[in-house]
Design goal:
The structure is a single chain. α3 links the parallel β3 and β4. The chain starts with 9 loop residues before the first strand and ends in an 11-residue tail after the last helix. It is built from nine helices and five strands. The chain has 234 residues and is of the alpha/beta class. Strands 2-1-3-4-5 form a five-stranded parallel sheet, with helices on both faces. α4 runs antiparallel to α9, α6 crosses α8 and α7 packs across α8. The chain has two domains: 119 residues, Response regulator (Rossmann fold, 3-Layer(aba) Sandwich); 86 residues, Winged helix-like DNA-binding domain superfamily/Winged helix DNA-binding domain (Arc Repressor Mutant, subunit A).
């Protein structure tokens, strides 16, 4: 396994068949991708725990659907990691579970170069978008965490459209104090108006719901039943 070159997207390739793995690695590298190749998911977990990568390309013969490996892969999909699966005759039930969990695609072997390129480029694109999105949300949450408990109470009321006077009456503070809290909130969140506060709050809530929904879809396939998992926190 060679280290990723700066500026290149890194693909983690998992394939039990050495000949297929070598051929896929050459195909992926011809697309300008850095490739880390592994014989199995267990090998990947042992040799590259927690390393950064753009996506996973995984041969289904390297995964045992009857054991925990496939469920672990579904869990990674639920965390937002793009995964492309390859199989010569993948069971329909497994394909459905993977796609419902959020896999980019399940390709049938032998796969044409153009089809592989399309799927992997889509996966890399998803990864880049996800990284930018997470960075943005992380930045917004860091700003929000700067608010005091009282400022959060004022924030919650301002974004519903309440006037300073109404916020003060509800919280038992003066309108002047509300204005002071409002000015502090705008400064800490780096916004210039209540309208921007509303957009910020909407963005954070949408991200929270998106995370819950994605984790739910992956978990439902992991559990192989229709009931929802326990509620998640943002």
């Amino acid at each position: 396994m060679t280290p990723a070159t700066s500026g290149q997207a890194t693909v983690q390739l998992v394939d039990r068949n050495g000949r297929d793995r070598d051929a896929l690695q050459l195909q992926l590298e011809s697309l300008g991708l850095q490739v880390e190749a592994f014989a199995s998911l267990a090998d990947r977990a042992e040799r590259a725990p927690g390393t950064s990568h753009a996506c996973i390309v995984c041969g289904l013969d390297a995964v045992s659907p009857s054991q925990s490996e496939f469920d672990e892969l579904l869990a990674e999909i639920g965390e937002g990691i793009p995964v492309v699966l390859l199989g010569r005759a993948p069971p329909l039930s497994l394909v459905v579970r993977a796609l419902k969990a959020g896999a980019v695609d399940v390709l049938r072997r032998p796969v044409e170069a153009a089809e592989l390129e399309r799927a992997v480029q889509e996966a890399v694109g998803r990864s880049q978008s996800e990284r930018l999105h997470r960075s943005r949300i992380s930045e917004l949450r860091e700003r929000f965490d700067r608010l005091t408990a009282r400022e959060r109470e004022v924030f919650d009321r301002l974004i519903t459209g309440q006037l300073n006077k109404q916020v003060g009456a509800e919280l038992g503070i003066t309108e002047r104090t509300v204005k002071a809290h409002r000015a502090s909130i705008l400064r800490k969140l780096s916004v210039g108006s209540v309208a921007e506060l509303v957009r910020l709050a909407t963005t954070l809530e949408f991200a929270r719901q998106q995370m819950i929904e994605r984790a739910f879809m992956a978990s439902r396939q992991f559990l192989n039943r229709q009931d929802a998992p326990r509620p998640l926190t943002a």
